[in-house]
Amino acid sequence: MTSSLRWCAFLLSLVSLGRAIILTQNDASLVSSTKYDFVIVGGGTAGNVIANRLTENPKFKVLLLEAGPSDAGQLELQIPFLCTHTTPNTAWDWNYTTVPQAALNGVSISYPRGHVLGGSSSINCLVYTRGSKEDFDRYADVTGDKGWSWDNMLPYFKKSERFTPPADGHNTTGQFDPSVHGFNGRVGVSLPGAATAIDGRANAAFDQLGGEFQRTLDYNSGSPVGFGWSQAVIGGSKRSSSSTAYLAPQYLQRSNLHVLVNSKVSRILQTDTAGGLPVFRSVEFNLNGAASSTKVTASKELILSAGSLNTPQILLNSGIGSSSTLKSLHIKPLVDLPDVGENMGDHPIITLAWTVNSTQTYDDFNRNTTLQNQEIQRWKQTGQGVFVNGIAQHIGFVRVPDTSPIFSKVGDPAPGPGSPHFEIFLSNFLLGTTPPTGNFLSISSIMLTPTARGNVKLNSTNLFGAPIIDPQLLTGSTDVPLLREAVKSTLRLVSASAWNGYILAPVDGQPTATATDAELDMFISGSARSAYHVVGTSSMTPKNAKTGVVDPDLKVKKVGGLRIVDASVLPFVPAGHTQAATYALAERAADLIKADHS
């Protein structure tokens, strides 16, 4: 059978299997004999955007390599409420662990990353927050490229987004600002699709307290400070991931798009030299755990979209990084880029919880298999009910006053006076391990302006060994003080009279409003964890800058043929969950790539 006929048979199998992509070892030789214009490493949040947008041009032939399995048919990856069941210790998670974190009492923490088509967009908790206008204006300033400014990026946020009515069809007037959203994009975004017992009380608490708990119509407007209804990547009643959105059946059927799952990339290879620079357009991968590797080459560009942990790992395995460090690992240095794997930024998070006088919380659905299965059937049959919701009904962004003593000796780490220092979101159940009995309210705080910087390094010369991950959480000068303020703010929120008769008591060991700063800091060091919003390990810097990993056009410095498109290029964590920013980043990157090859 000729190569073209085999691909036709393969594409027909995709149609018959719906969204499932099932490949055998035989497909490796077929892929290696096909000529591609672009090869994308990583079928995650960003990589699938690039695959979709490049194959809009029928002249471009694209191969997308994903290390994990297909997401097709996996209920946990489809049902919004089950988002907390996707990690850790599942086949969809890389199941990474950090080194001991000094500021967290020396514990090593789990560090989930998506190991499935869709990447972390298939396993995260669905929250859709863009960050602030000033986040993106700072990206523009530090890179010298106005294209990364808020005004230039807002069209890309809109381009990626398909704002969708909530599952219950309720009137959303006054719950969001349509003018800042997109309605014709790929990724479904929606407001909560089922009311909860805390909705009225939360809104009443915001109004009673005012001040730091002021309302905002839409925190995705670029001016996020204030509290409003949560927005999540849900289309109708289902999770909308980069896989379901950008690799929907109508896109998978494009003859110029080939997707290979279970294909783990080990390294990229130099193919030639141009203009005095080494050119990297080949990639080695192992399909379905095979002992032998397969090589494939792109004629135009190789694009790394493996994420903030795996992208630097692949670069380092390939001899691109700090020459001295690579030599110590007996890896031949090919390109000296000392910042590969450095400048790692992440958001710390802490959750407080209270027992409540209600039987209308969601806790029973997490501990009672019978109830959970009943609700799954309801979701399947009607697209309604508890399981159409994610983890949060309300989200707020709070800014510490400029006069705070926190900033008396060091500068304000926020990118500007309109940016928040922390996020607060409310959940109608206990986040974390659910105890056998009890009903709970959880309120989580994310510190949005970390100054701590960690790193990702190689563990050994084992190409597929887990990297050494050290986010150095809460080691920045303002990190603990600002997270302490977030905890204080949360305690003030539950002091509102709206909670009278509802909140019964804090969970054991949790601080109260009378706690001292020292007691709060002790609680933080024992309870804070990562929000898994990892960026910075392949940071953008100005063109010709001696620091950084990529130029503002996302081309890797000192090499040719290689570009990075994922959250690792962001030099700072935005004031929000990172998936919305990653979608917009990838949409702009697709336009940059198209312009270079038009």
TrEMBL record:
Family: Belongs to the GMC oxidoreductase family.
Pfam families named in the record: GMC_oxred_C, GMC_oxred_N
Keyword Phosphoprotein: no
Alphabetical keyword list: FAD, Flavoprotein, Secreted, Signal
Active site feature: H533 (proton donor), H577 (proton acceptor)
The reaction(s) this protein catalyses: pyranose + acceptor = pyranos-2,3-diulose + reduced acceptor; a pyranoside + acceptor = a pyranosid-3-ulose + reduced acceptor; pyranose + acceptor = pyranos-3-ulose + reduced acceptor; a pyranoside + acceptor = a pyranosid-3,4-diulose + reduced acceptor
Protein name (Swiss-Prot/TrEMBL): pyranose dehydrogenase (acceptor)
Source species of the chain: Crucibulum laeve
GO cellular component entries: extracellular region
GO MF terms, alphabetically ordered: flavin adenine dinucleotide binding; pyranose dehydrogenase (acceptor) activity
Domain of life: Eukaryota
Region forming the signal peptide: 1-20
UniProt xrefs under Gene3D superfamilies: FAD/NAD(P)-binding domain, Glucose Oxidase, domain 3
Function description: Catalyzes the single-oxidation or sequential double oxidation reaction of carbohydrates primarily at carbon-2 and/or carbon-3 with the concomitant reduction of the flavin. Accepts only a narrow range of electron acceptors such as substituted benzoquinones and complexed metal ions and reacts extremely slowly with O(2) as acceptor.
Binding of FAD, residues: V116, N124, C125, L126, V127, V265
EC annotation from Swiss-Prot or TrEMBL: 1.1.99.29
Cofactor: FAD
Keyword field contains Signal: yes
Intracellular or extracellular location(s): Secreted
Oligomer status and interactors: Monomer.
Domain Glucose-methanol-choline oxidoreductase N-terminal, chain residue ranges per copy: 307-321
